[in-house]
Structure to design on (318 residues):
């Protein structure tokens, strides 16, 4: 695995691929038409305001892109964060003791006895569209799992909720929420409004793009710098896993148990030449022609040999 790629370790990658495969094996038929849901007027044309009715419309619109029936009952609730989550001080939610990023989560889903769902949203998150949409996406993913009778609970359920949301096309909303910078008393600070971190969600988005043959540029067009860099590295890794991508697309059940091997990620020259014999990389095409082959001079032959050697050195270094 190249050390210059900022991607999760093999154990985490195996978890992400196998759980994504399990979801596709379970919901393959309803996920086939999934597309990248863009945080723009294309998919969210409704006017937004900081009021319950507008947030309800946003939630319903997000639900409409998931495999959920129109008759699913739910209720939104707005809750105050506890003191530890809020971090005290300035009241922005951007201040907290200690160093490093701060994890801010909401959008957990609770199933009610009468068959509906209660969705609590943090009051502090409502004013931040990135955090709010990430929370809503996770909640919609959780509803998908509940409707499918998935047994996971706790943090595992929250992680699977995000994977389920991403598998329906809501991954960009989550990836944006994985790293949000907010201004507090001591300056800008990174917030993580997701359970999966930015590199993990970047991998899931890259897998989605390749499995569904979606254009990566559609995803990149809605990402900030940190997310865009993570997505670029994730895409490089995914493009080296051709067999895994094909199985995710056609036979995901073969990956659901996590028993598979990763290919060594390839650099530019490796992807360009693939598995071809590099000694023939610059050889003329074997095509029958009535035109006699051009006789090359010694100088031309030397230049060809030098070019061949450069290509071989580049490939050996991948």
């Amino acid at each position: 695995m190249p050390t210059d790629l900022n991607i999760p370790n093999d154990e985490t990658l195996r978890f992400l691929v196998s759980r994504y495969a399990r979801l596709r094996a379970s919901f393959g038929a309803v996920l086939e038409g999934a597309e990248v849901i863009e945080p723009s007027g294309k998919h969210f044309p409704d006017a937004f305001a900081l009021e319950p009715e507008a947030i309800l419309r946003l939630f319903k619109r997000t639900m409409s892109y998931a495999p959920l029936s129109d008759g699913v009952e739910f209720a939104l609730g707005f809750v105050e964060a506890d003191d530890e989550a809020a971090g005290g001080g300035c009241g922005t939610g951007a201040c907290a003791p200690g160093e490093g990023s701060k994890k801010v989560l909401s959008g957990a889903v609770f199933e009610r006895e009468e068959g509906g769902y209660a969705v609590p949203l943090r009051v502090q998150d409502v004013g931040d569209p990135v955090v709010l949409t990430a929370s809503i996406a996770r909640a919609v993913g959780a509803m998908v799992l509940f409707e499918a009778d998935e047994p996971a609970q706790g943090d595992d359920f929250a992680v699977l909720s995000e994977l389920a949301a991403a598998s329906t096309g809501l991954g960009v909303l989550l990836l944006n929420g994985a790293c949000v910078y907010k201004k507090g008393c001591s300056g800008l600070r990174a917030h993580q409004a997701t359970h999966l971190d930015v590199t993990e969600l970047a991998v899931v988005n890259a897998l989605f793009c390749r499995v569904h043959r979606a254009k990566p540029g559609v995803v990149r067009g809605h990402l900030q710098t940190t997310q865009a860099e993570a997505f670029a590295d994730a895409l490089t890794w995914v493009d080296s896993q051709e067999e895994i991508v094909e199985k995710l697309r056609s036979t995901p059940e073969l990956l659901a148990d996590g028993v598979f091997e990763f290919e060594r990620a390839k650099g530019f020259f490796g992807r360009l030449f693939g598995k071809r014999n590099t000694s023939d990389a610059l050889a003329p095409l074997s095509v029958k022609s009535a035109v006699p082959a051009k006789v090359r001079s010694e100088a031309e032959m030397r230049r060809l040999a030098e070019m061949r050697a450069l290509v071989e050195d580049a490939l050996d270094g991948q």
